Automatic annotation (TrEMBL):
Compositional bias (Low complexity): 1-11, 17-37
GO BP term, pick one: methylation
Signal sequence coordinates: none
MF GO annotations: methyltransferase activity
Top-level division of the source organism's lineage: Eukaryota
Record keywords, A-Z: Methyltransferase, Transferase
Renumbered residue ranges of the record's region Disordered: 1-59
Protein source organism: Ascodesmis nigricans
Name recorded for this polypeptide: S-adenosyl-L-methionine-dependent methyltransferase
Length: 377
């Protein structure tokens, strides 16, 4: 499939130029024909939707009257495995894992969070046009590792599509289903520790949205390298931990306050979230070759005019409905000055602002891939 790369606009004034937002009907936007990614609301744009954040292309703002927002509340539960490691901690009505000690991973692992992870999986598939990965897989795929597998939804779907491979999903929390494909299995372990699998073992290592549980991402990537077989590939998918806005509509909002507090408290908790270039560098430094990085836009809320982006924004809003609390509650109340009530009212306010469609915020998702040289030891 052909990439739609929006960096080729001849009107781009340079790499440091901000991306612009075009208010509905504004003449300030590029013509729809100049940008197949962000153009009109008539049809979905086909193909991949890679974005160039250094371009000055415009994400057009849709009609404010549009609103068919649905809540995430009708998604089904998963059944957790029975194990002695299910000695969970409970705070403020949410359940957290105990493995590794309190504060190691600040997101909950209860059923509400599992629903959110499964909904987020759907979001990631929307962004990637229904693909589970973007990297070209090697032939003779026997062993696959999914790092921080969560509910195991990616591992299960990948295993169903690749019966020739054994897929191992690993996570701090035993929240994966009991009834799985025969070629999929789950382990509970801490990926910040030394990995105990054999070296040169996996033909494909996949990792999605784990930066909230990995303090030394360079070490994490070097362990990936060690355990990838020569000729094997890795793919790291991350929602980058920055919020963007092209037209200032986020300024002074509670959504902006949420992101500010979230970043500050994460830093106090010891997390330095890698940027796209950092992840690329970690892969190169570890020894991977053919390193590529693709970046995608995810609007916070269904405000974009483009139908595909609007749908993505819609689902992201449903993810954020419980996601702001999942990411923020422990952090803001432990490392910030917020009471539980203040934090929860911040999340509710930010959510309400998002659904007015007047705040044109967006986040990036990146897919970074690499291949271990075939002649590596
Ligand atoms: C945001 S969730 C993403 C889940 C899954 N990758 C997905 O995209 O659906 C992050 C997962 O990583 C796990 N995790 C975080 N830090 C970890 C660590 N150090 N070792 C193993 N798993 C970890 C968490 O328990 C959680 O299930």
């Amino acid at each position: 499939m052909t990439n739609i790369n929006v960096s080729t606009s001849p009107s781009s004034p340079g790499p440091s130029s901000p991306v612009g937002v075009k208010p509905s009907g504004s003449s300030a936007a590029l013509s729809p024909s100049s940008n197949p990614l962000f153009d009109d609301d008539s049809e979905d744009t086909p193909g991949e939707h890679e974005h160039d954040p250094t371009s000055n292309e415009l994400i057009q703002v849709g009609d404010d009257a549009y609103s068919d927002y649905a809540s995430a509340s009708d998604y089904s539960d998963n059944t957790s495995v029975t194990s002695s490691i299910r000695a969970y901690l409970f705070h403020n009505g949410r359940r957290y894992h105990r493995y590794g000690g309190q504060g190691k991973y600040v997101l909950p692992n209860d059923e509400a969070e599992q629903d959110r992870l499964d909904l987020h999986h759907h979001l990631a598939l929307m962004v990637l046009d229904a693909k589970l990965h973007t990297v070209k897989l090697p032939e003779n795929l026997h062993r696959v590792l999914d790092c921080g597998t969560g509910t195991g939804i990616w591992a299960l779907e990948f295993g169903a599509m690749h019966p020739e491979a054994v897929v191992t999903g690993v996570d701090l929390s035993p929240i994966q289903p009991n009834w799985v494909e025969t070629n999929v299995r789950f382990e509970v372990d801490d990926l910040e520790k030394e990995w105990t699998w054999r070296e040169n073992h996996f033909q494909f290592i996949h990792s999605r949205n784990i930066t909230n549980g990995i303090r030394d991402f360079g070490k994490y990537v070097s362990q990936m390298y060690k355990h990838t077989s020569p000729g094997g590939v890795v793919e790291i998918s991350e929602n980058l931990h920055d919020i963007h806005c092209q037209d200032g509509t986020i300024n002074g909002t509670r959504l902006e306050e949420f992101w500010k507090q979230y970043k500050e408290c994460s830093a106090k908790a010891g997390f330095r979230f890698p940027k796209k270039e950092d992840i690329e560098n970690y892969l190169q430094e570890a020894g991977f070759e053919d390193v590529t990085a693709k970046i995608y836009v995810m609007p916070w809320g269904p405000w974009a005019r483009d139908k595909r982006l609007r749908r993505i924004g819609h689902v992201l809003a449903a993810v954020a409905e419980t996601g702001m609390e999942a990411y923020g509650l422990q952090l803001l109340t432990t490392f910030g000055d917020y009471t539980v009530e203040q934090a929860r009212s911040l999340f509710v306010d930010a959510m309400k602002e998002m659904m007015t469609l007047k705040v044109h915020a967006y986040q990036y998702m990146v897919q970074v891939t690499g291949r271990k040289p075939t002649d590596a030891n």
